[in-house]
Amino acid sequence: MDIVISQEEYVRHVLEAYRKTPGTMGTVRRADRLLAAQLYERGLSVKVIENALVLAATRRLIRPADRPPLGTIRSLAYFLPVIEEVLEARVSPDYFDYLRYKLKRTAPVR
Fold it and tell me: How far apart are the C-alpha atoms of 101 and 95, rounded to whole Å?
């Protein structure tokens, strides 16, 4: 069952999830706020956005140690391709719960 929330609430949830995602600056810019509103207008659930953030952050953290370090993510737009990937994926929600677990154990606390 989908719970309907206001655009303001949606934007707040998405931006808070983005801000807390490992690898991001931890700050929100105007462009991020506008993009979150656009995602709301597209009708994307907060859960889809959160799953994309978790998937991208996990991928960044489990890179081989011999690879050069990745830069800090400075925009919510960085996650757009992963959001599309999550929308197209036919994956159990349990997979994203597993990634959340891995991320909590691996990521530095913010």
Answer: 10
Adjacent-strand bridge partners of 73:
24
**Lookup result for tokens 């949606």:** 10
Closest CA to 110 of 27, 11, 15: 27
| Structure token pair of residue 21 | 């995602």
Instruction: Please tell me whether residue 24 adopts helix, strand or coil conformation.
Output: strand
Q: How far is CA 16 from the centre of its chain?
A: 10
DSSP state of 79: G
CA-based end-to-end distance of the chain? 32
Is residue 56 within 8 Å of 96, Cβ to Cβ? no
**Tokens 């994956």, located at residue:** 91
Q: Which residue has the tokens 């719970």?
A: 3
What confidence tens digit (pLDDT) does each residue in 61-91 have? Answer: 888 889 988 899 999 999 999 999 999 988 8
pTM: 0.85
* CA–CA gap between residue 96 and residue 56 (Å, rounded): 11
